[in-house]
Amino acid sequence: MKKSDLVIPFKYEDRRPIILHRFLYVPDNYDFHDEFRDKITFENDNEINIEYCSGNGEWIVDRAKKNPNINFIAVEMKFLRARQIWLKMHKENIKNLFVVKSEAFIFTKHYLKDCFASDVFINFPDPWPKKKHAKNRLIKKEFLQEVNRVQKKDETITVVTDHEDYRDEIINEFLKVKEYRSIFKEPYFEQDTKGFGSSFFSTLFQSKDKAINYIKFSRI
Ligand SMILES: C[S@@+](CC[C@H](N)C(=O)[O-])C[C@H]1O[C@@H](n2cnc3c(N)ncnc32)[C@H](O)[C@@H]1O
After folding, report:
1. From the CA atom positions of the chain, what is the Rg in Å?
2. Number of structural domains, the chain?
3. pTM (predicted TM-score)
4. Average pLDDT over residues 192-220
5. Ligand 1 geometric centre to CA of 72 (Å)
6. Domain annotation covers residue 5
7. Ligand 1 pocket: which of 61, 77, 83, 162 to mutate (most atoms <8 Å of CB)?
8. Residue 180 structural domain
């Protein structure tokens, strides 16, 4: 596969969700998500893990390669980054990966059915550090409730962040959702989780000696 194989209907009047070569494209500013009938499929019925905010896909590509018996979905809202993951996936012939170009909440709400997924991961969601931008943060109760709906019972969601203020807000949002229970004891995060894998941002922050916070909840 090469870039030109991903023929996306970008023109305003043509825009629609479309699946092409294991890539789901969900347009921005679009109102008809619930009319979409195609489905994300894999070659087998193995469990499905989702990573939101995948960036350049370093973490999920490595995870998929190391766990061939798990299927993975990478969700990234920027088209060029999602395409970068998709190119890697085809170049390295990773069959247990699917890439979604979409905003995370919209994708979860409109494109995923109940109890569809097992574990969920969010590595370094944008912290929007300025107070006036904090409303743009992804991890709110409403988003977590949607993720909870699509997860199977007892499966986990892990969120990783370097940002202390966002970490505390994320924990508060989780505590509002009664269908999630923290795996870690109060204060509900840990900083020393080995073997989790590395992403572009984890490598960057570790090189600056920044503490990395792991938040992990289980779906009741
Ligand atoms: C700070 S980067 C982290 C990338 C990667 N997870 C890593 O650790 O290197 C955050 C990524 O999340 C994506 N993103 C931010 N908000 C999103 C949303 N609401 N839905 C989907 N992707 C989102 C951004 O485009 C960006 O690529």
Report:
1. 17
2. 1
3. 0.98
4. 92
5. 16
6. no
7. 77
8. 23-28+43-219
